[in-house]
Amino acid sequence: xxxxxxxxxxxxxxxxxxxxxxxxxxxxxxxxxxxxxxKPGQAPRLLIHDASTRATGIPTKFSGSGSGxxxxxxxxxxxxxxxxxxYCQQYRIWRTFGQGTKVEIK
Amino acid sequence: xxxxxxxxxxxxxxxxxxxxxxxxxxxxxxxxxYWGWIRQxxxxxxxxxxxxxxxxxxxxSPPLKSRVTISIDTSKNQFSLNLNxxxxxxxxxxxxxxxxxxxxxxxxxGQGTVVTVSS
Lengths: 106, 119
Description:
heterodimer; A: 4-stranded antiparallel sheet; 0% helix; globular; B: mainly beta; 4-stranded antiparallel sheet; 11 strands
């Protein structure tokens, strides 16, 4: 099983600042990597697939990069609606998720 | 716009079978997509359970494979999850979702349904 490790576990960010989230795969997943945003009581939201392709309707403030084993999600100019938990997911072999990074208001 | 809605008992007894159904609205389940089940728990975060194609072809998470069955009913535009021999570790929010065509990221999700395991 491919293990996905996200860091940090919690990221404290002031509104208006940027956030950089990391995701590392235990083996090469090429660019088969997605990012999701989860908020309580809401359906999870796909942000990025194929490591860097924004999903339909996702604003340009969300950007993904990386390939192989190391990936990054960058969120620019955080607003109140961006504070949430973010998960990465690989789909190179089966589908496995990271444990999540909580982005909280500083 | 495609919508997915999970339904089923919110409480299951240990050792019994958890059964959930996902109803897909405003979109035909027979289009060329995979449909999946994912769960979220405090202990494990998000965990993929399995996925099914409209033909009935299934893929299951290896750790859960021995206990999981996913089926599809194209006449009702629904797909279902059965997870047998449940324990407290199976308590979670269960989501159904659609996989992107040609990829296995999930682009549309239901709101999720809470399942508690208790006698």
